[in-house]
Write a structure and sequence with these properties.
Chain lengths: 332, 332
Amino acid sequence: MIIESHAHFTNAPAALDAYRGRQIQNLARPVPGKLTISDEQLSAALDKHIRRMDRLGITATILSPRASGMGHEFGDWRTSSYWAQVNNDLIARAVALHPGRLFGAAQLPQSPGVDPAMCIDELNRTVLELGFVGCLINPDVAGGGQPFTPSIGDPWWYPLYERMVELSVPGLLHASSTVNPALHLNGSHYTNVDSSAFFELLWTDVLNDIPGLNLIVPHGGGGAPFHFNRIRSLLLGAGLPPLETKLERIYFDTAVYDRDSMEMVLRKMGVDNVLYAAEPFGTAKNVDPDTGVPFDETIGFITGVPWLTAEDSEKILSGNARRIYPRLRIET
Amino acid sequence: MIIESHAHFTNAPAALDAYRGRQIQNLARPVPGKLTISDEQLSAALDKHIRRMDRLGITATILSPRASGMGHEFGDWRTSSYWAQVNNDLIARAVALHPGRLFGAAQLPQSPGVDPAMCIDELNRTVLELGFVGCLINPDVAGGGQPFTPSIGDPWWYPLYERMVELSVPGLLHASSTVNPALHLNGSHYTNVDSSAFFELLWTDVLNDIPGLNLIVPHGGGGAPFHFNRIRSLLLGAGLPPLETKLERIYFDTAVYDRDSMEMVLRKMGVDNVLYAAEPFGTAKNVDPDTGVPFDETIGFITGVPWLTAEDSEKILSGNARRIYPRLRIET
């Protein structure tokens, strides 16, 4: 079984962005969204996801709103709240069209400087009413601007984390847009936020303080596997527990697009903590002219690793996802 | 021959930081520094560098001020200017104590929002009067704060770049401190800035616009080798020239501390563009308990790569540095 653990609805019908466009033009007066999207339109937009799943043998996909679109830096909490609601409602409709194949992960109404506890109502709604299995957490709420967001390991986040544990919902640490002109959304910002969030999980006490909290660092952990000994040296120099002991509590996904990088993720981060993901459709949707295959078709990078057992591959492709997403239930 | 292309004077005598402490306490009234450091004190501080060079067979080291200490976000241009001067003067004295073994790379008086052309006087002074061979360029002048620094590929930088070309001086793209509480200086900020600067070199026209400009992305290119196909896909999707053609014009150093990461840098970035560096003494100075050897002793990671020819190793260990640092002249 294969579970795509990290996919975004990047090609939602235009009515979604049209609402957002009007919302941003009237930031001072946010109003709830009412999208006019028919089931036929929605189904047509989802078709490429479903066809890809069929073609690659993917049983289930955890689908979340477009990450760049979350744009938590705009407006206030009401802005983010209404925007999260329309996105999550649309994901819920998508899931309802493909029960057992699509599962929802929530966008949260994060807003710069606003207590993460203010995300709990929407987390409750999406999990308990809409049946979502996970959520996205943006570690850099103002997109590199100010107010700065406290470290992802700071107790500022704990009320949200505690509710996630109660609900048995893991969090995918995923940045949204950036206001810094020296950063490129897909080319540097996302993976930089991965790297910094990962390091904060090592450098702080959060994983001890919140037992049961499951956080996933996407895109292979940013640069973490590549800078493994750099990180080990820093932890040693600070007298902190060795990296290896912390890794048991942190999850990663495989959204990297090189065979050797994939192997590096699996070897260094461990087969028990890595979830298959290729993050369709986005950064890596283009066809590699060297192979004629889209960059994001990486399942063979996992099954082709010679030192992985069949059991290891099964964990990476689905078992680990089923373990840390307990609400994701697949009839077998 | 081995050239350490990236080392910082991280253990300078306390008089240096004492001046800086007083300077920051009186930001409104910056005054030039006059350090009282004897040759004996300076020599004692340099001793560990020289002993390490002798022990590892390193012929020459390009020494620059402590990167975290540059702190360009503090004060105004005068603050950065006086602070760069005392640092560079101290490096010049260090070089004079070990002629032919140490070579200087300059800290520049960058300051948030200030035209990089304002760095040219200090660049001229350090190169033409003090005999320096290179300089550090901080791509994120306000350390993640505001005003944001334009992309390293933005024409804003061109006057400085043009003068670097005239002087035959390359630039090591190296961040300094950060004001963002979610970033860790050595654990994420430096390598994140590497990754974002590298991507900007691909995404902009700077390398075409300034022929002869040589920029070095340290720490193995941040996360670039690990995210190679992610980057390739983005360039393809944008209709930009393929990554491989851009790589011919960008340099990297080997300041990574894993054998497999080192091989990944060399394989993907190419043996003609990578300069040996272990960045003593800093992040990786600690001893790896698994090997009993400091993390930053990585020369064997290069000489041990089976597919490298002797000529390749020579390029990486010294030839490439001698080529792009033409002012670094070693008697042989």
